[in-house]
Amino acid sequence: MKKGLLILAGAPLGNSRDLSLRVRDLLGEVDLIAAEDTRRLLRLCSDLEISLSAPVVSFFAGNETQRTPELISALLQGKTVLVITDAGMPGISDPGYLIVRATLDANIEIEVVPGPSAASTALLLSGLPMERYIFDGFPPRTQQARQNYFETIKAESRTVVLFEAPHRIRETLADAIGILGGQRLGAVCREMTKTHEEIVRGSLTELETWANSKEMLGEITLVIAGPNSGEISELTPLQIAVKVKELEGVGATRQEAVAQIATEFGLRKRAIFDALVASKIGQ
User: Which of 63, 98, 213, 230 is the most exposed place for a label (fewest CB within 10 A)?
Assistant: First the structure.
């Protein structure tokens, strides 16, 4: 028996008209549809007047492990299975990896229909450097783990894109400031492509002030620039050395002064010591 085909399709972030023509056609042609939220898919199809050709089953984080063998069974029977998430592409902080891996292990063909991406959309809206970036999904939920995470990206020169839940964005910004420094540039992109889309750009301190001023609702993407972007790169070795001496003048040790400046300006400690040598202050 000829094996089937797994299709991974992109879904709109919020504006239903962003669903591609190709996906609209496929929804009326495939044999089985696996949707992260069946009700949301049915509502989307109703809004766009799309007639579904196949049964729709749920496929979300809570049942991905159990559902994957069922989908593989359908594929082995020669059926065409379409996987679609609530928003964006399958597998990107959403179910998808397990079915892709299992499909490849079964030597079944995979096809991808590109679609909207919250990470790339937020990157474009952020106004931050976009030539090189990393996407890290959701940061850890607990404070200590989150702080440890920010330590790992403190010296990351590429722009970092993260997803975050609205009820955790304030804590995440506070932890980012504590590790990366309040002057680090960033952007919060909320409810992208929807009626109440909101993009806030500025330093992490400014973003925290904004977040604390209102109720947080909706999908949020946080974009953080590398330490060499914006104001941080403006500091010359002499300016860095002067700041070290100012802190030492009020009682801080050399190590304490370097640690404080590293946190405040998002600099590596080694770079601060190099600046002291280059400026010949404090020798």
Answer: 213
158 in helix, strand or coil? coil
Tokens standing for 212? 């604390």
Q: Which residues contact 91 (CB under 8 A, 6 or more apart)?
A: 8, 97, 100
Task: Provide the total of helices (H) and of strands (E) in the chain, helices listed first.
Answer: 11, 10
Question: How far apart (Å, rounded) are the C-alpha atoms in residues 52 and 38?
Answer: 12
How many whole angstroms separate alpha carbon 147 and alpha carbon 133? 20
Please write the tens of the pLDDT for every residue from 235-261: 788 888 898 999 999 999 999 999 888
Considering the entire predicted model, what is its pTM?
0.79
- Are 84 and 7 in contact by the 8 Å Cβ rule? The answer is no
Which two tokens mark 268?
A: 């590596």
Q: Look at residue 185 and tell me whether its pLDDT is greater than 50.
A: yes
> Phi and psi at residue 202, in whole multiples of 5°?
155, -165
Instruction: Check if the beta carbon of residue 154 is closer than 8 Å to that of residue 213.
Output: no
C-alpha 88 chain-centroid distance: 11
Strands 185-190 and 220-224, bridge-based pairing: antiparallel
**pLDDT tens-digit map of 204-221:** 999 999 999 988 899 999
Q: Is 162 exposed, middle or buried (0-12, 13-18, 19+ CB in 10 A)?
A: buried
Q: How far is CA 225 from the centre of its chain?
A: 13
Sheet holding 32-35, edge to edge: 56-58, 32-35, 80-84, 5-9, 109-113
Is 34 buried (19+), middle (13-18) or exposed (0-12) by CB count in 10 A? buried
